[in-house]
Amino acid sequence: MPLLIPRQAYDQLSSPEPQLQLPRLKTFYGDLHDALRPFLRPEHPLLVALSSPLSPTSNPLRSGIRYLRASLVAMRTLCAPVRDELIDATLQRLDTEMEVASTREELAREYVDGIKSALEIGEIMQQDFHDFMAKYGDERRVRSMFQQSGKEAEREAISCVFSPTKIVEQWKKWAGVPEVGASPRWWLERLLSVLSKVEPVTTQIDDHPGYIPPVLALCRLDLMEMQNAFQGLVLCASLRTLVPALPASRRTQLQARDPEAAKAEEAFSQRIWTLLGVDPFTTNVDTSTEDPLSIAEEVVQLWKLRNPPSEDGSEAGSFATKEISIREMAIRMINEPEHPVRKLLTRRLLKAVEERLQTPLLPPEASSSPTKLESGRATQSGFRLKPSRVPVDLEDPPLAVQGFDDPFLRDQTTAMVKHLRRNVIDWVEFVWSDVVSNT
Description:
mainly alpha
């Protein structure tokens, strides 16, 4: 039965006033969230983005279109192959219509039509899933099928490009030869060194700072995202040194005295994260920017909130001088990868992440059968679905790193470690154990 969308939805979305569009967009975000929830982990970036407060933008509808497209791409990856054609047609129609839409009314109509299609596809996917589980029954069997088929497909794809000898040679050239008594994951230092570079990850040029060998080739998108996350964490933490996170006691006092100021304090790092464009789902095309001034202005605004000028204007000159100084320091941090603060925080983060990842969460004697399907993060071009071998009850505890004490940064650091462990390291060790072993 076709979904019915009230006429009021079209009127709200075609309004030139963002405040009229936002309530309806939030409703549709909730609908997309409900459609995807059965197929993605709760902490998946797209689900988090769809359930989070809307980011500030002058064109909310354009943001809604972007999230709609990301949702359809997710469905395209997760659906049964027989549904590919339906979703491809929906995506193509959405892209085509958005290119030719010349008025807000046309844009709103095509967006609503796209929402209707996405929700109908979601219902179809749920029915397909129930039919599939009814056929195969045992959930452990289904997980094992995913794991083994993923391993076979990856090895076959890489072997079509590189010979077995070349695969081993490239690995040894990249990772080096472990010393006697080295950790089984001695190669993590090399991998994290790549992720800390500003040069993008590549599989093409052997002597490129971002080069990764063939056994990591199909993890390239995950690694690119983790590289962005690493750089984003370092830059956010660097800017935080100019307006350090308040201790818990002061946050509580501020909340009681000035809730709006407390909200700005709490949202600071997340806003910087969004403006830097670190996360492809929570980043808004209208607010993400390469302009350091826009990012530095966030730092200045928080500093001014903490340090309001005197009412009598007696300190106006020194206040203005200090404001300029804060802005210039922030811009230098953003523009200079070799800035001393960024280098220091990079070293701290590298050390902490490597120490955490050196110890596998999965006991050596544990079963090779997966215990949970992992939905990998992705760039805007698609998603990857990998079965994790990490038991459900073995979660990475929060990772505390000096300089990354801000609650948002701590959560993002822990999430980065978790993603690296589950979607790259554990997976590579499972698929390519004969290559990455140091024995």
